[in-house]
Amino acid sequence: MSKEIPLATVQKHNKPNDLWLIIDNKVYDVTKFLHEHPGGEETLIDVAGRDGTKAFNDVGHSSEAREILKKFYIGDLAAADIQKKRPVSCRQIGLALGAAFLGISLIYVIRRGLARN
């Protein structure tokens, strides 16, 4: 069983010489990797002591990068600190359907306009 690390503990490790971060509810000590990080030190410092999952995924790291990350794994985020995903609200569904309707309508109007010319 892996070690559970509370968020409060991760948050204390937010300096370049002591840098922990969270990715997918796993805690990593990337202090020794800071100077080797291909994206530069600043990108790691920006998420020091915090959840860097979104930033990590947004960049689209390779499978090789994910393998390297495994070397720095020190434990899992404590269950009590894992944020539960909220269900999709009716408002969000309504906005998505409205946007889809507008998009389809726009395509229809453009095609109809082009057909006349």
Question: What does this protein look like?
Answer:
By secondary structure, this protein is of the alpha+beta class. The protein is built from 5 helices and 5 strands, in the order E-H-E-E-E-H-H-H-E-H. The chain is elongated and about 65 Å long. The model has no long low-confidence stretch (mean pLDDT 89).
Features of this protein?
117 residues; alpha+beta; five-stranded mixed beta sheet; 5 helices; 45% helix; elongated
Layout of strands and helices, then pairs:
Layout: E1 4-5, H1 7-12, E2 14-15, E3 18-23, E4 26-29, H2 41-45, H3 53-59, H4 63-70, E5 73-77, H5 90-116
Parallel strand pairs: 1-5
Antiparallel strand pairs: 2-3, 3-4, 4-5
Average predicted local confidence, pLDDT: 89
By secondary-structure content and strand pairing, the structural class works out as alpha+beta
Distance N terminus to C terminus?
69 Å
Q: Tell me about the largest β-sheet.
A: 5 strands, mixed
Tell me the helix content: 40-55%
Structure annotation, total helices: 5
Number of strands: 5
Amount of beta strand: 15-25%
Oligomer: single chain
The main sheet orders its strands as 1-5-4-3-2
